[in-house]
Queue: 2 jobs
Job 1
Amino acid sequence: VSVYSDAKTASVAVANRIAKLIKAKQARGEKTVLGLATGATPVAVYGELVRRHKEEGLSFKNVITFNLDEYYPMKPTAAQSYVTFMYENLFSHIDIDKNNVHIPDGTLDADEVVAFCVEYERKIEELGGLDLQILGIGRTGHIGFNEPGSAPNSGTRMVTLDDLTRRDAARDFGGKADVPTKAITMGIGTIFKAREIILMAWSKKKAQIIKKAVEGEISGEVPATYLQLSDNVEFVLDVEAASDL
Ligand code: GLP
């Protein structure tokens, strides 16, 4: 667990680690495979990476990304889609090859989803796995959209969203009724295979769930508690999110 005075300082530290990883791999002629997250939490990390690209020439030409999740169904052009989020906050402002961007497809027919998820996992494996996975945490203790009840070895799949998660998303959709009931998410097992995992949380609002995730009994009731079983996880917190530890 690393605790920073505020979210901005912590975000810059995480962005620095990502930049260092990209540069080190680039110097060896290797690609960096990043697992990315959405939500308010990583916005300042992406902002810092954009700044480093624009002001310091940090290049993303050798970076391949896989996003954790997407609502289902969801049109990529919708304001609430994670595709829109990722382009607005990161991809539109950096030199990443758009063919190297992967985000679960919210437009699939229901009978195409399983094959898509198997292929998503295969692509990650083919590239040698995720070098670094960035995570936020939902108030249910979800990582990605792995809600309570998710299995520790779960892979990419379609899931049903928890009521609390849909309530938290209501503001973005103009009411809970319009929040999709389903999503496609990488599994806990997919996340676990990453060589490094950074879970970030800011503000008092996250203090209770962070206490459970870091110190609570390991259980599918709080999926983030599974992270306690990995040696490669760092919880990056601001003082407020760490205040119940
Ligand atoms: C959504 C995302 C999660 C994210 C969570 C927390 O549910 N699928 O990946 O961690 O929201 O969001 P925020 O960072 O806005 O608190």
Job 2
Amino acid sequence: MFSYRHAFHAGNHADVLKHTVLVAVLQHLIQKDAALTVLDTHAGAGLYRLDGDYAHASGEAAEGFLRLAQASALAPALQEYVDLVRSFNASAASTKIYPGSPFIAQRLLRAHDRLKLFELHPTDHRLLAGNVAQLEAGRQVAILLEDGFEGLKKFLPPPARRALVLCDPSYEIKSDYGRVVDMVDDALRRFATGTYAVWYPIIARQEAHDLPRRLKQLATKAGKGWLHATLTVKSSKITPLSEKRPGLPASGMFLINPPYTLHGALKEALPQMQQLLAQDRHAAHSLEAAG
Ligand code: SAM
């Protein structure tokens, strides 16, 4: 079974990038009345305690969300994200609860929208089910103890033909990279007008390097627009003097059929993310789009 638990990483720089994009995309998609389906292929536990043992052990939120929470004059997309996370906490002064993608999405959805959550880890599935039960969301939210790459197929196309697919695997197994590409390829054939958002780690591994290039090829072949945003917080080189656990240096979000508003929002937000989340002088960002 997998050993990855998102609780160690909740609120880190990768979550900041991913969840800022998620909030911005959803805020655009809910402008239209027609029902929206959000499919989260790798949901995690849904809610995380930043004062819990897992988060304390890693301290990743301290170098991620918590830096933003202390900053002022944020770009609008960052402010919306920070405000949404704060809304899960009783006091604006201290963030104890960090919402994962299922709770961020659910908070923004309307009563007639639908949320499908896939989570394969039995413990995280149980935690997710318990957290969602508190919402009394009824038929709005479905939780599936299934493989998200495969399970997605049966929901495409969605009834009102409007959907956002968030694909955020842990990439613990090398084959996840290829499965992401196969899943998006298949999904575009079933439902070409959906919005697809894929998070991936930027690490020294050929599959990770190839992933955005392969997704770009898929989008181009299907004649669809795409957007690619990356955030680097530190050098990927491990020196003898660096920390015991080097941690993830950078990550990216690749979107197919992104809302037209996303590029402008990220153009403002990414330089600020870089500045606020930098861990050394190698911090950087990139933003490219087509279509
Ligand atoms: N999307 C979540 C968020 O932003 O809050 C975090 C998800 S975490 C990076 C990846 C999750 O996918 C883990 O909880 C892991 O147990 C789960 N997982 C791994 N392989 C899976 C699969 N094939 N199908 C569904 N879930 C899977």
